[in-house]
Amino acid sequence: MSTILILYSTVDGHTRTICERIGRVIEAEGHSVALWRIEDANSIDPASYDKIVIGASIRYGKHRRSVFEFIETHLSLLESKPSAFFSVNIVARKPQKNRPETNPYLRKFLRQIRWKPRLLDVFAGRLDYPSYRPLDRLAIRFILWMTKGPTDPSTVIEFTDWARVDEFARRVAVI
């Protein structure tokens, strides 16, 4: 049995939901899981875990600064243990952009860091216009209009492929 640390960075909460699902699947495989916001990771000792998973969402084309800071601070630890990373973004709703090798945000992120996770994936997120602040709603509608996505301000769509999330979790359990 392994102890697995799952860290997440989220703006609207969906990445945490994905991490919770990953944690349940891993626990069903007989492992122990701890789930933390990456911003709170200074409250724990990441070295005390056997494996580390980081999930991070995209907002306006970027992962949050705290993700980069954690990776830079703990680079040698991340490289010394089995580790995994996944990105959550709406672009991954498109079949031609829903793999680590084809998702532009994940590719850009990997060029910006020195860490080489053993496992990588990308999951489509959740679009929830009614919950966004007015300026965010306007900006996200514009971005989705440009990429031929849904723009109705009452739209709530979950694009996440949960079977794929489950498969990623099972792969984490055995790395």
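^ that was protein a. below is b, sequence first then the tokens
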Amino acid sequence: MKQADKHQTDKSRSRFLRFTEGWLFNVINYTMFGLFTLLCVFPFYYLFINTISNNELVARGAISLYPIGINFSNYIALKEVNDLVSSFVVTITRTIFGTALMVVASAFAGYLVTKKNLWRRQLWYRFIVITMYFNAGLIPWYMNMLMLGLTNNYLAYIIPGIVAPFNIILVKTYIESIPAELEESAYIDGASNFTIFRKIIWPLSMPILATIAIFGAVGNWNSFQDSLILMKGAPHLFTLQHRLYIYLVKASDLEAVMAGGAGNTAVLENSLNSKVVKYTIAMATMIPILLVYPFMQRYFVKGIMLGAVKG
């Protein structure tokens, strides 16, 4: 009887320890990730509340945790900066077309290098990979773009980014994980390689294609160097990040432009200052790309091929 009681006590104690350890782990885990999330989100939150608060308080550094004197006149005043609109158009179109072409090219190339009957398949694949390790440098790159006629040319934003070796490798690796039985059954039914790619490979590869699409969209949206170096003679082709750099350098001049164009609106009443101008433009350049991820998130689905091959 005593042995049974002792066994029951040990069992209860063991169950209690497991519960305590699990509870403690969850508390520590959620606390750490909560703090990490807060550290990531707070800079964006701080920037945003300073753009919608009273500008005089922002200039004095009085805004820290919550907005005071909420108004959106700073964002409305941005329309007075004419070249900012053109930069938005350039960056948005570049992001859309550049990302779309990159995804299609990466999908095609990634699928082709998985075909064992492709002539010199290993050579082509290694040729793609080797470009990731060797870079001629900035000056040879500029000279190459100059000889190709891609300076002061909108196509300089699109063409060089179509072939992305790292993304091709990602797509190739993902396609190789797709059961070969799917393609074999399609071949038996008389489907061509293009039909298989369009109707089988492309739909099943949506998670990895969405991933590289986000990589490409963020890269195109944040691109700065190519605009700075290649578009010196074409200010109308400056990207948004390039404009942001110019505005941050000349924030005091932009302050006068925005205030002068706003007339007797609330912008002028709130006394625009260079700090507010910097905050507002920086926030305006971030908002569009921050809105992309929620729409792409649904493609990050695990087990998309579950049940595709019947046993």
